[in-house]
Drug resistance transporter, EmrB/QacA subfamily
Amino acid sequence: MKNQSLSQRRVLAATSISYIVVILDTSIVNVALERISNALHTHISGLQWVVNAYTLAFACLLLSGGTLGDRWGARNIYLAGLALFTAASALCGFAPDLTILTIARVLQGVGAALLVPCSLTLINHAYPDPGERAVAFGVWASCGGAAMAAGPLVGGLLINMFGWRSIFLANVPIGLLGVWLTWRVARDKSEAQIRHLDLSGQLSLIVALGSLITVLIEGPVLGWQSLPILIGIAVSIASGGLFLVIESLRDQPMLPLSFFGNGLFSGSVVVTMVSALIFYGLVFMLSLYFQQVRNYSALQTGLSFLPLTAMVTFGSMISSRLTKKYGPRWPVAVALGLYATGFFGLLPVTADSPYWMIALPLPVIGLAAGLITPAATTALMGTVEKSRAGVAAGVQNSSRQTGASIGVAIFGALSVAIHPFNASMHTAMWIAAVISLAALLIWWLTAISNHR
């Protein structure tokens, strides 16, 4: 019994540590944008690739990460993912130019896509008791929430003391600690009923999302009617359609389209993607605003994000209680309303506005982001059988990373296409508010149809 308890603690410690660095890397890089721009001589489109290379690879491969864990053992794939993430972080830290940094960020995303679904499997195997398992998942998720909230501030402190490369190099000792802890965990057996890897579906998804993000980032630079952009649009549409056809014909698809026959499942995926799109798009745009318009240092930028990120953590803490009491419909609806209110509150902000004008709407947006994820997860997981819960969770996580990539691409494109920056930010806030209200309508309709 004592050995089992020790093994459980090792699994929880290893998976929580790795999840912290994975989530940190979705937000921490934003406070380094100005430093990276100056050091590697790049503009907004290059910075978009630095941010999006990670989330795009993460989103594209997340659904296959769990399948690989089933085939070759969750511990083995988790270790491979963590080792790759750690090595890629070192490469990011020593990258001599933008190309190498972008490639290294892609490798980080691949590593994250392998280790995140397998970390859930390891916790699931280590804690057979449902009550203990729920507590373990809560600890794991709380580590991710804390990492997202602390990301900008931690990044600002590291950059202020050691330079921008330190935000990547700091992952290395943490990653090595995670590898050491996982190495001491007993090997798990592969699943008796092995899911097949959907290679053609995976490839078509990579092409579809990759070409879409490329079009959104490079469109303002090359021109929306230029031949490369028109080809990119065609490739994205064709490969996206091909992906849907492949998934509809597969016996074991990486994305079971039958899930979307349930309105509540579809609504949960939509609001998860929209939340990530507008939240991470805002973080990217505000990072540029703080650093390039207001000339804040990395540390000042990190501190300026505290009203936003602190409320994300608070929202996550109360969301489960609200969902348990009222069901997921009302918390998600309120959160989307709060999103719209917060973005409308940012409309009057200009280059010369006092900081309090920015700080007042940020907690509202942060609270909305914190409320949505647990509530939407509860709604989504309640629509599928327990045997398919892992696949459903993968779909939701993938939609979140996809939304983040699209959000950074769209908000960045607005920054390039519309001048001055205040005008592009004003347009982005309008778009975010309208998208929030549209998502609210979709959510309400899907939630009502399911309630009936």
